[in-house]
Amino acid sequence: MKHQRGFSLNQMMVGGVIFFIVALLAMKVLPEWIEYGKVVKTIKATAQDTTLKDGSVAQVRAAWTKRAELDEIHSITAQDLDITKDGNELVIAFEYSRKVPLFSNVSLVFDFEGSSAKQ
Predict the structure, then answer these.
(1) Residue 119: its pLDDT value, please?
(2) Are the C-beta atoms of 48 and 116 separated by less than 8 Å?
(3) What would the DSSP string read from start to end of 43-92?
(4) I need a labelling partner for 11 at 20 to 30 A (CA). Which of 53, 73, 84, 104 fits?
């Protein structure tokens, strides 16, 4: 008899379990990274807004809050923003942590930070 090729049932079951674990992890973690991307995009758009160039901190916070509501950002608030001026440029920085429960007493903790300053 020639060598048989293909997967055995055990290999398929182990592969399925590994795929399930990776998919579950991705479904739990991916939304946090997507929201982080939204926060960075919103921070940069707010900092580049020419109408806020000479605005007060309260005006910048209000503008960011409006943009955050449109993008459905719930991880941070306007009070969590560090708003400064670097020369003639508005710089908005932030940092926050998110705890993502996986199962039972196992969780992942993400520390996100970013800034509108060009890097």
Answers:
(1) 60
(2) yes
(3) HHHHHT-GGGTT--HHHHHHHHHHHHHHHT--S--GGG-EEEEETTEEEE
(4) 104
Query: What whole-number distance in Å separates Cα of residue 94 and Cα of residue 72?
Result: 17
The 10s digit of each residue's pLDDT in 8-66 is 888 899 999 999 999 989 999 999 999 999 999 999 999 998 888 888 899 999 999 99
Q: Positive or negative, the Cα torsion across 35, 41, 44, 45? A: negative
Task: Give the structural domain span for 46.
Answer: 30-115
Residue 20 domain-assigned?
no
Distance of CA 72 to the CA centre of its chain: 12
Rounded Cα distance between 108 and 28, Å, is 10
CA distance 101 to 55: 40
Triad 23, 28, 32: Cα angle to 5°: 130
Q: How many domains does the chain have?
A: 1
CA angle 95, 39, 87 (to 5 degrees): 70
